[in-house]
Each structure stands twice: as structure tokens, then as C-alpha cells.
Design a protein that fits this description.
Helix content: over 70%
Low-confidence stretches: none
Number of domains: 2
Distance between the termini: 64 Å
Mean pLDDT: 79
Order of helices and strands: HHHH
Largest sheet: none
Number of helices: 4
Radius of gyration: 30 Å
Number of strands: 0
Structural class: mainly alpha
Length: 108
């Protein structure tokens, strides 16, 4: 049998415990609250939200991925000997330049 100790708390705290513990014993309820709080502190981090810096890193990664994707398809199409229409090539090239410039600006 576990050793028993006495815990002295304010009457308001004792009243809150009694009002909220339901069918649980006082000891089990306090133990439950402590365990819940400790688990919440460890897993909460920042409440499931991302910071501005994390978002910018994600945005930079996505832009870099898109730029690499466009570069791949441009070079793949050119290797196959297909000559894209000049307007298509200009549009893709322009998008590529915009992504490259914005990626550099974000990293600075």
C-alpha cells in the first residue's frame, strides 16, 4: 500500500477540486491534473502554430522546389529536341527568374 501524506491547500482550491473531480478520488484527480499538465507542456511547443521564421523557411523551400521543377522540365524538353514556342519559353523563363530573384531576396 502506498504511503499517505497530507497536502494543505487553500479552501478555494479544495472547493475547486471537489467541484470538478466527479467520481474520482481527490488523490487520483490531482494526479490526473499533474500528468495532464506535464504532457501538455512537453507536446504543446507553440500550440500547433508555426512561427513567422518557420513559414518563411517553408515558403523558400517551396519556391526552390518549383524553380527546380521548372528548370528540369525546360532542360528535359530541350534535350528531347522539342523546340517550345518562343512565347512559352519566355513565359517559363520569366517565371523562373521571378522565383530565383524572390528566393534570393527572402534569404537575405
Amino acid at each position: 500500500m502506498p504511503e499517505k501524506k497530507m497536502l494543505i491547500v487553500d479552501s478555494d482550491v479544495a472547493r475547486k477540486i471537489d467541484e470538478n473531480r466527479g467520481d474520482m478520488s481527490i488523490s487520483h484527480f490531482i494526479n490526473f491534473l499533474i500528468d495532464s499538465q506535464l504532457k501538455q507542456d512537453v507536446t504543446a511547443g507553440n500550440g500547433g502554430h508555426v512561427t513567422k521564421e518557420e513559414f518563411y523557411q517553408f515558403e523558400h523551400g517551396i519556391r526552390e522546389l518549383l524553380r527546380n521543377f521548372l528548370e528540369f522540365f525546360l532542360s528535359y524538353g530541350l534535350e528531347l529536341g522539342k523546340q517550345p514556342a518562343d512565347s512559352e519559353l519566355d513565359k517559363l523563363n520569366q517565371k523562373l527568374q521571378v522565383l530565383h530573384v524572390s528566393a534570393k531576396n527572402k534569404s537575405s
